[in-house]
């Protein structure tokens, strides 16, 4: 059986990555239940009560962090066609900067994150949805080592990305002319292979903990590619989320060096940085056949939307 998530058709849970994530979620849930019900694992007295209280406080703190994040998202994202105000972006980014893996039931001690061996074949990317509504979604992506989420866009969306665990390489672009589909087009490409000019925004390695990144409908690197250097987890807040019905489907691209093609309108580049190393042609492609993703149930601290 298959489901559609974030514009990508994915299989139901499968593979070692999904199993590791599910196992971690179950372990986190057992810890929460033990703390909340006061279960003693080793019997005894005295110190057991102190341990239970400490675990309970930790669980409550984790739950409070993700609940506060949810409430902030509910206030900030007002639906399609809107972009959060600068002070709202600053507030939400600061909250995500403070987020820890434990706030969503994760730990660097989980087997998935300790595994440094490269997977055989194409690594499977796992994702879990913390919350989703018409205005925004909160998602965690789990990338094994060497896994790649191909270059793709976020039409009309504002996206906050926070790397919780691991290291990854991020490469992102914006259109040179975001207001037109036809300008800054290669004159040497055929009609069925139209190329559009983009400018490089980010091309760098990131290791958790690091600052939250934000992309907007036309700036901030709206089209990006993730490549996992080590097993990693990243939380994405998308507002609004992908929706085929509302014309916010995910489009994939391949990037081609700028020097391989010429432009129809050289004057379009007058206001663009003339460093050719930061320009590239993007070609729209079908969803890569090798892209493998699966969905698992979120098992971290629950959210109340009341």
Tell me about this structure.
This protein has 306 residues and is α+β, with helices and mostly antiparallel strands. The chain has four helices and 14 strands. A six-stranded mixed β-sheet has the order 9-6-11-4-3-14, covered by helices on one side. Helix 1 packs across helix 2 and helix 2 runs antiparallel to helix 3. The radius of gyration is 21 Å and the shape is globular. Keywords: Iron, Metal-binding, Oxidoreductase. Its EC number is 1.13.11.20. It catalyses: L-cysteine + O2 = 3-sulfino-L-alanine + H(+).
Helical fraction = 10-25%
Please write the string of helix (H) and strand (E) elements: EEHHHHEEEEEEEEEEEE
Mean pLDDT: 81
Structural class: alpha+beta
Number of strands: 14
Counted by DSSP, the helix tally is 4
Spans of 5+ residues with little confidence (pLDDT < 50)? 1-16, 32-46
Alpha-carbon Rg, integer:
21 Å
Through-space gap between termini: 32 Å
Task: Assess the beta-strand content as a share of residues.
Answer: 25-35%
Largest sheet: 6 strands, mixed
Question: Strands across the major sheet, in which order?
Answer: 9-6-11-4-3-14
Shape annotation: globular
Summary tags:
cysteine dioxygenase; alpha+beta; globular; 306 residues; metal-binding; metal ion binding; RmlC_Cupin_sf; EC 1.13.11.20; single chain
């Amino acid at each position: 059986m298959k489901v559609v998530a974030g514009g990508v058709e994915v299989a139901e849970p499968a593979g070692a990555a999904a199993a590791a994530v599910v196992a971690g979620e179950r372990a986190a849930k057992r810890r929460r239940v033990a703390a909340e019900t006061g279960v003693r694992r080793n019997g005894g007295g005295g110190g057991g009560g102190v341990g239970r209280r400490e675990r309970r406080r930790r669980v409550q703190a984790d739950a409070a962090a993700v609940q506060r994040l949810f409430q902030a998202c509910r206030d900030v994202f007002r639906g399609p066609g809107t972009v959060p105000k600068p002070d709202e972006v600053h507030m939400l980014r600061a909250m995500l900067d403070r987020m820890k893996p434990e706030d969503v039931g994760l730990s660097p001690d989980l087997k998935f994150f300790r595994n440094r061996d490269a997977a055989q074949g194409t690594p499977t990317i796992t994702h879990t949805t913390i919350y989703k509504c018409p205005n925004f979604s909160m998602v965690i992506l789990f990338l094994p080592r060497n896994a790649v989420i191909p270059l793709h866009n976020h039409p009309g969306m504002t996206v906050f990305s926070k790397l919780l665990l691991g290291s990854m390489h991020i490469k992102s672009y914006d259109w040179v002319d975001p207001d037109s589909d036809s300008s800054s087009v290669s004159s040497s490409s055929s009609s069925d292979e139209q190329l559009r000019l983009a400018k490089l925004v980010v091309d760098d390695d990131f290791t958790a903990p690091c600052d939250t990144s934000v992309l907007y409908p036309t700036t901030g690197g709206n089209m990006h590619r993730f490549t996992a250097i080590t097993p990693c987890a990243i939380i994405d807040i998308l507002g609004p989320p992908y929706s085929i019905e509302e014309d916010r489907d995910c489009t994939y691209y391949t990037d081609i060096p700028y020097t391989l093609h010429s432009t129809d309108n050289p004057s379009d580049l007058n206001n663009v940085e003339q460093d050719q190393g930061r320009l590239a042609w993007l070609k729209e492609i079908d969803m890569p056949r090798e892209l493998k993703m699966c969905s698992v149930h979120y098992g971290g601290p629950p959210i109340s939307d009341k």
